[in-house]
Specification:
single chain; 5 helices; about 75% helix
Length: about 160
């Protein structure tokens, strides 16, 4: 009990100190809020968790998933994102190997999702994927048009 009250007192003191410092316009100590570092494994995991949660929530709303389906979808998406992150780190100098791993992760995610959804949800899911593919194609076509060099001027006749 003494250990618990000591921990509570320390946590309360830190919180009050940070609050008081911020209320007085004084910056909180750097140790209280460590800088974000994308190479820090804890920050990477936090980012992956947030991204998986966000993507799963969007799909859950669009597909009208129940809670159990949402939880499974989030786990599948986290696994996919984790595989992509590992492939990016391991195969940075081998783009073809990285692309193969990315495709494997996408195929595994797709297989899990297909097994998770009922017929109505599956139809909606494939409609969403087709719409996203069309958007991606149109964006790529637009970017190729805007990044293509202008045609050379016509040659003058003498």
């Amino acid at each position: 009990m003494k250990r618990l009250s000591t921990c509570f007192a320390l946590a309360t003191g830190l919180a009050i100190g940070c609050f008081t410092a911020s209320a007085q316009g004084v910056a909180a100590p750097a140790a209280a809020f460590p800088a974000y570092d994308d190479h820090n494994p804890l920050h990477q995991e936090t980012r992956l968790n947030a991204q998986a949660t966000d993507e799963a929530r969007k799909l859950a709303r669009a597909l009208h998933l129940n809670e159990a389906q949402y939880i499974q979808l989030r786990a599948f998406d986290y696994a996919r994102l984790h595989t992509l992150m590992e492939a990016e780190a391991r195969f940075a100098s081998k783009p073809e190997e990285r692309l193969a791993r990315d495709e494997q992760a996408a195929a595994a995610f797709q297989a899990h999702v297909v097994n998770l959804l009922n017929d109505e949800q599956l139809t909606t899911y494939f409609e969403l994927m087709a719409r996203d593919a069309r958007r991606t194609q149109s964006r790529e076509a637009q970017s190729q048009q805007t990044t293509a060099p202008p045609p050379p001027p016509p040659a003058k006749l003498r």
